[in-house]
Amino acid sequence: MFKLTPEIIDQIIFAMEDQENSFVVNPDTGGLAEVRDDDESLKDEKYIEIPEWRPVDGYRLMESFISGLHNPIYRQQLLDAIASGRKVFRNFKNSLKGNAVLERKWFLYKERELKRIIYEWYNTNREIQGLKKIQIPAAETEDLVLSDFVFTRWHNNNPAIIAELDRKAVFGWYKGFEPEVAEKLYNKRISNLPDIDDKSSIVFTAQTPSDETAGFIWVIKKKKTVINTQYFLIVQLYVIEEYRGLGIAKALLKHLVDFTLKENINLIDIALPDSLFESISIFESFGFRTVSKTLELNMEQL
To answer: Considering the entire predicted model, what is its pTM?
Structure first.
């Protein structure tokens, strides 16, 4: 049985997506050959048919990809594209244009699934020949998508951008409030925090390939006077809407944790609203645990 190399996998994927022609594989060499009606030599039992890949399989793959998206905007956009009834593949492709990260996520997802099918097909044919199955390599789609972003510590360059994103995040917390109430709550919060470019503030950002800020985490270095120890207080963790669901928030948190270890700080606290704790599993995956809960009565809302 031939060795399943990356080059052979690519050739099989190309052949699978060719809806006009049929192909077989030489089990000894891994070479592909197109089956022609006038060529009986390739219809010998020696050759192996490549995995079947029909338009309906492609449609189901798009459905599977969409169902796994966490971002509701893009999920609905792509659902509308494939529900149009006509030219669904072209509509799906066009909907991905203009969003390089989402488009890359789709290509990586598609490649991963096709490779999985090919490995299962390969192992089935190895078993037929009495050979042992080979292990299917682990997929790293999310890590590959995240590799398009640059995660770095922010060094006080253009603080207005971070401040505006922070303001947008806070108004998202209070979206059920009257605008003037939300403004007061925002101003109260800012008055109790140091400036973003203050020496006690530490910010990590995620930058897109076009050098736009996709998200950031903001912490303040503080001191617990009772036990006389320094700690980091997370006051903001925000990813702009179009980049949510890619693992950016978790990656930002990881950079903070790594930085905290290097700084020999032993504690990270969080001061965030309940709305952000919908994603509490992200924090728990790093070992965070709930130690208290703060309740507040705002007399202006009575």
So the answer is: 0.64
Give whole-number Cα distances, 33 to 39, 50, 81, 122, 297, in Å: 11, 10, 35, 17, 74
As a whole number of angstroms, the distance between CA 184 and CA 35 comes to 73
Burial class of residue 207, CB neighbours in 10 A (0-12, 13-18, 19+): middle
Q: Which of 86, 116, 139 is the last residue of a domain?
A: 139
Task: Indicate whether 267 and 207 sit together in one domain.
Answer: yes
- Write out the residue range of the structural domain in which residue 17 sits: 6-139
Ramachandran bin of 121, using left for φ above 0, alpha for ψ from -120 to 50, beta for the remaining angles: alpha
Q: Are 23 and 159 in the same domain?
A: no
Residue 75 lies in a domain: yes
Over the stretch 196-254, which tens digit does the pLDDT of each residue have? 999 999 999 999 877 889 999 999 999 887 777 899 999 999 999 878 878 899 999 99
The pLDDT tens digits for 69-85 are 877 888 898 999 998 77
> Packing angle between helix 100-128 and helix 88-96, nearest 10 degrees?
130
Residue 145 included in any domain: no
